[in-house]
Design brief:
The chain has 2 domains: 42 residues, no CATH class; 97 residues, OB fold (Dihydrolipoamide Acetyltransferase, E2P). 3% of the residues lie in helices and 42% in strands. It contains 1 helix and 9 strands, in the order ββββββαβββ. It has a 5-stranded mixed beta barrel with strand order 3-5-6-8-7. A two-stranded antiparallel ribbon has the order 1-2. The two termini are 41 Å apart.
Length: 151
């Protein structure tokens, strides 16, 4: 970590590390803290193993264009696989319809993912990218998104 210094005006205190542009403090050992330095835990829900709370995971109906999203949903339909040629070369694409208790959205599947999923499977999309395509919201894996099958 040598060579890192705080941005001008930030100042540092003993025990504070600078990682990128984020200041990290050691966890407090007081009873009222949860180990999350500087974070109030009053009224918070318990975290799931992947670090999300039920309230932190929005339903499909709350999604907006041009944002990342993490959602749990069920695949209700998958279109025929289409062969396409993009600027990155030849690939395959299919559209899956996802549904949760709040609504539906189209998931674009590329490459090997077109054959990996089937109707009725429950999936979790983590850090997917929501966009408006031809007047309808659609989610894809984007740069850092992942999709996993849920039990």
């Amino acid at each position: 970590m040598s060579g890192l210094s705080a941005p001008e005006g930030w100042g540092t205190r003993p025990g504070v590390r600078i990682v990128g542009r984020v200041r990290l403090r050691p966890a407090r050992s007081s009873r009222r803290g949860s180990g999350l330095a500087g974070a109030s835990t009053a009224g918070r829900k318990a975290f799931t193993p992947d670090g999300l709370t039920a309230s932190a995971m929005p339903g499909i109906a709350t999604l907006k264009s041009n944002q990342n999203a993490t959602i749990d949903a069920t695949i209700t339909a998958i279109s025929e696989i289409r062969d396409v040629t993009t600027s990155r070369g030849a690939s395959q694409v299919a559209d899956a319809t996802l549904q949760d208790e709040t609504g539906t959205i189209t998931l674009t599947l590329w490459g090997d993912d077109t054959k990996r999923f089937s109707v009725g499977q429950k999936v979790r999309i983590t850090d997917g990218w929501v966009k408006d395509f031809r007047g309808k919201l659609q989610v894809s894996m984007g740069r850092s998104g992942t999709i996993s099958i849920q039990p």
